[in-house]
Design a protein that fits this description.
The protein is α+β, with helices and mostly antiparallel strands. The protein has helices spanning about 65-80, 110-125, 215-225, 260-275, 305-315, 340-355, 380-390, 415-420, 435-450, and strands at about 5-15, 20, 30, 35, 40-45, 50-55, 85-90, 130-140, 145, 150, 155-160, 170, 180-185, 190-200, 210, 230-235, 245, 290-300, 360-370, 370-375, 380, 395-400, 410. The chain contains 9 helices and 23 strands. Helix 3 (about 215-225) packs across helix 4 (about 260-275).
């Protein structure tokens, strides 16, 4: 029997030590400073029958191994089953290295430690469970989000081609302007949690060697400034695989950079949230549920010729191999890999080839009354997110990327076979091959229908 809701929120500091490797670029960087601390932030909701937990980490991604380790501890210490726990990353590019990604090595000490802190955030939230209400809202904000993949005059597709570049033709696709929101308050109206979901890859900071939660952290601090220290705020990255904050057409130009711009964009979302929470219908009871299914998908194919070429590239100093004009690998469509990066992709080619030809990844759906959370394990292209939303009757639907695991960019079949470009190049940060997106959309549709 459903009873009145209870909810709790908490955070745990997950800032790594200085000297740790920082992912998010093509070459390794190492932490020399801390602009702002990194956190795992958790919200737990209980309706008397079912308890769900959502925990968001200031990381570039969370691997399935990390998420499973945290969920096992949460199940043991909090009694919440793994299918009712979502662990996701914001996608800040100034955090710790959680996997071997491009030219950055994994920090194994960190990946062994951080699941304990993720579980701590949930356990602290459970300790703080108290009578609560939950509300939802959705608005559109199309002024701060742009497609970063463009068709250019040579017939290829380029990522970040340059503002007002003379070769620009048109963006490859759309944006998702929807900002979905969930607000949790105590019985006495004390704010407990503010959850926002928006498709914006990240903004960037002032120093790539300083640890920072990027604009996701600014959002949390702004919400605490507005609502008080009791409010733990989570900003979930929606389907934003090719979406960023730069208008390459030049119609909208920003004067701010780094943290100043990150705070401005966080203020835009925080302002919407503060407005919309005034109009939310607050629920004292809600049906809750959760399900996880396994997606089986093909990884990108690596040929014997690709591996032979990779060996030749890695046999010479980085940046000096230039015996090609296109490609050079079989999985490259359109734009060739720049010669300065071809050694990175030769190594990635070898890594991918060692994996099974078919891989698996978790797909999760959480239900909160008429609202639903779809959690996907990578950097999802915006078209996929829009397809999932349009086929669902959830109100609202939170589309959360970088959740419960990481298989890299989940590109559309069109991008893989016709457009090409950075996001499509085979790497541990871009594993899925043609057919993955249709299979994933079918699994999600089946789960939402159920």
């Amino acid at each position: 029997m459903l009873t009145s809701l209870k909810a709790g929120s908490a955070s745990a500091n997950i800032t790594p030590p200085l000297g740790t490797a920082i992912p998010g670029g093509f070459r390794a960087r190492y932490a020399e400073n801390v602009d702002d601390e990194l956190f795992a932030k958790a919200v737990v909701i209980d309706n008397g029958e079912t308890r769900i937990a959502m925990v968001t980490c200031d990381l570039i991604a969370v691997t399935e191994q990390m998420a499973d380790c945290a969920k096992e501890r949460i199940a043991d210490r909090c009694g919440i089953p793994p299918e009712h726990v979502m662990v996701n990353a914001t996608h800040t590019h100034t955090a710790a290295a959680i996997a071997n990604l491009l030219g950055t090595p994994v920090d194994t000490d960190y990946t062994a430690w951080v699941p304990l802190k993720i579980a701590d955030a949930v356990e602290l939230a459970v300790w703080r469970l108290a009578p609560a209400r939950v509300g939802f809202a959705s608005v559109n904000e199309e002024r701060i989000t742009f497609n970063r993949r463009w068709h250019v005059k040579d017939g290829t597709v380029r990522m970040n081609p340059g503002v007002e570049h003379p070769a620009l033709v048109r963006p490859t696709g759309t944006i998702d302007a929807e900002l979905t929101m969930m607000f949790v308050e105590a019985e006495d109206s004390t704010p407990l949690a503010a959850v926002a979901n928006f498709a914006l890859h990240y903004i960037g900071t002032d120093n790539g060697n300083a640890l920072s939660a990027d604009y996701f952290g600014h959002f949390g601090r702004l919400m605490q400034r507005y609502l008080g220290d009791t409010c733990v705020s989570l900003l979930w990255n929606a389907a934003s695989g090719q979406i960023n904050n730069t208008d390459f057409s030049g119609k909208r130009k920003w004067t701010a950079r780094g943290h100043r711009q990150a705070e401005k964009m966080a203020n835009v979302l925080a302002g919407h949230f503060i407005t919309e929470m005034q109009f939310m219908e607050m629920h004292e009871t809600l049906p809750l549920g959760g399900e996880v299914r396994t997606l089986t998908f093909p990884r990108k194919r690596i040929t014997a010729e690709d591996l032979g070429l990779a060996e030749r590239i890695l046999a010479v100093p980085p940046g000096t191999y230039d015996d090609y004009e296109t490609g050079p690998f079989s999985w490259v469509v359109g734009q060739p890999i720049p010669k300065t990066l071809v050694d990175i992709y030769a190594l990635e080619c070898q890594r991918v080839a060692k994996l099974p030809e078919h891989l698996t990844a978790p797909i999760q759906v959480l239900r909160l009354g008429e609202a639903a959370i779809v959690a996907l394990p990578g950097e999802v292209f915006v078209e996929t997110g829009m397809n999932i939303k349009s086929a669902s009757d959830a109100s609202p639907l939170f589309l959360v990327s970088l959740a419960n695991g990481y298989i890299g960019y989940i590109c559309t079949d069109e991008a893989l076979t016709q457009e090409g470009g950075y996001e499509t190049w085979a790497a541990m940060s871009s594993l899925p091959a043609v057919g993955t997106v249709p299979a994933m959309e079918a699994v999600v549709a089946s789960m939402l229908e159920r």
